[in-house]
Amino acid sequence: MEHIDHVISAASDQGAGNLLRTVLIVGVLGAAFLAWFLLRGYKSDD
Question: What are the transmembrane regions (predicted)?
Answer without folding.
Answer: 19-39
